[in-house]
Amino acid sequence: IGVDVGGSKPVNSNYHAHVEAGATANPYAGYMFNEYFGIQGQLQFDFQQPDNDHRGFNKENQTTSVVGYMVGPRLQLPVIDSPWGQPMEFYITGQGGGYTGLSGSLNGTSGGLSAGAGLDVYLTDHLALSFFGRYNRAYQSPHPTFLIYQAPDQQGPANAQWAVGGIGLK
Fold first, then answer.
1. How many CB atoms lie within 10 A of CB 37?
2. What Å distances lie between residue 130 and 37, 89, 120, 159, CA to CA?
């Protein structure tokens, strides 16, 4: 079990036309079947600040908040010991599930995915400091789909895509 916290940033132009950088918090739990393979589930809470163009559309100037519920495999590989003699593990995970928009530009429920990697540095036998990065995609478009004065390459509809990264405790 653990929790990751960090920053969140839109990565596709359509979503970036609606939101700016934000924050993420992700509690998770999993089970390792052996030293290398397991399963992990997480709740993902992402908060994106509205863009600063002040177009004034309904909900367009609100913070966009999304909750995700994901599950999928976790592959990990023990790597060299840390300087204080404790083990480290490099991991990758790919998860599927759904996202529900709670406020702002995303206001529906859809399927989605999350994929990423990280490094767990064990401080003790049972406590690790984690560093992570993930790509996320919700299969829903931010609203409104088309914005006045929006550049042609930012026109919707396109699925919301964002990246998160930060630290955690496991």
1. 11
2. 18, 9, 4, 29
Pair 27, 157: CB distance under 8 Å: no
Q: Find residue 32's DSSP bridge partners.
A: 38
Q: How far is CA 93 from CA 71, 144, 146, in A?
A: 9, 32, 34
CB 167 within 8 A of CB 4: yes
| Averaged pLDDT, groups of 10, the chain, 170 residues long | 96 81 96 96 94 60 90 92 78 97 89 96 91 96 63 67 96
In 3D space, the residue among 25, 23, 70 whose CA is nearest the CA of residue 45 turns out to be 25
Residue ranges of the alpha helices (H) in 63-163? none
How, if at all, do strands 128-138 and 64-79 pair? unpaired
Distance from chain centroid for Cα 48: 11
3 state DSSP class of 152: helix
